[in-house]
Design brief:
Blueprint: H1 5-18, H2 21-26, H3 55-65, H4 69-81, H5 92-98, H6 126-144, H7 149-161, H8 175-191, H9 204-209, H10 221-243
Helix pairs in contact: 1-7, 7-8
């Protein structure tokens, strides 16, 4: 799925309202720049936003990859009707009874919110969800034509409250469900390091959270021993301070 330039710009504006990274960074006390020799550009005058994090590229790739979900959801709907459809045990009731399990069960894939659902609580593929929402989003944009930051904040507020005249509560998917899902997806972009932004921008949010785990990191026994030594030293200093 490819966004038009206009769609991409609108989605970036909304992302920066939903997750105002620069504002959050400027208003929190923890400053990772104090603990690293690496240069963090957003701490030195440059602004961080979802255009810098290349959200558009991430979302386009993410949505294309979601096309496989349909076959998975078809199987899930079978399980919703019959949770034991693919059970391999001949004496299922005995197997469950021996383990203290109820003889009946429910498949809770939908209730777990591990997948998108339409207004009828049926699974819907992410790319289809976005295609439907983009139609309503563009209609709402054409109606309001936000320009300033205040305009965009009001635009998003209308969508959250489902009070936009062009995307009211009777239109499905709802504007609120779109904002909730879009927020999840943009955080997935920022925190899961699957964006195409160059370092250190690609992991900026993780750096600002003080999160050092990364995909591909490897730790040895020596790393653990060093960490234990540092902890014991810090603990000793703490106890000595308490004693005094």
């Amino acid at each position: 799925m490819l966004f038009t330039d206009e769609q991409a710009e609108i989605l970036l504006h909304i992302a920066d309202i939903l997750v105002p990274l620069q504002k959050w960074i400027e208003n929190k006390s923890f400053n990772p720049q104090k603990f690293t020799n690496d240069t963090l550009p957003w701490r030195l005058g440059e602004s961080i936003n979802f255009e810098v994090l290349r959200l558009t590229e991430f979302m386009e790739s993410f949505l294309r990859q979601s096309s496989y979900e349909q076959s998975l959801y078809d199987r899930w709907m079978i399980l919703k009707r019959n949770p034991f459809q693919f059970h391999s045990y001949n004496k299922l009731n005995n197997w469950r009874n021996e383990r203290g399990l109820y003889l009946t069960a429910e498949f809770g894939g939908l209730e777990s919110r591990n997948l998108l659902a339409d207004q009828n609580d049926s699974p819907i593929v992410r790319i289809i969800f976005y295609e439907e929402c983009l139609i309503h989003l563009m209609n709402a944009y054409e109606k309001q034509q936000p320009q300033t930051k205040g305009d965009w904040e009001q635009f998003v507020d209308f969508m959250w409250k489902e009070t936009h005249p062009s995307w009211g509560p009777t239109i499905k998917p709802s504007s609120r469900s779109f904002l909730i899902q879009y927020t999840r997806d943009i955080l997935h972009c920022a925190m899961n390091m699957r964006n195409n932004a160059p370092p250190p921008w690609s992991t900026a949010l993780l750096i600002e959270l003080g999160e050092h785990r990364r995909v591909g990191n490897h730790y040895t026994v020596e790393h653990t021993a060093k960490a234990v030594t540092q902890f014991e030293h810090a603990l000793q200093l703490f106890l000595e301070e308490r004693m005094n």
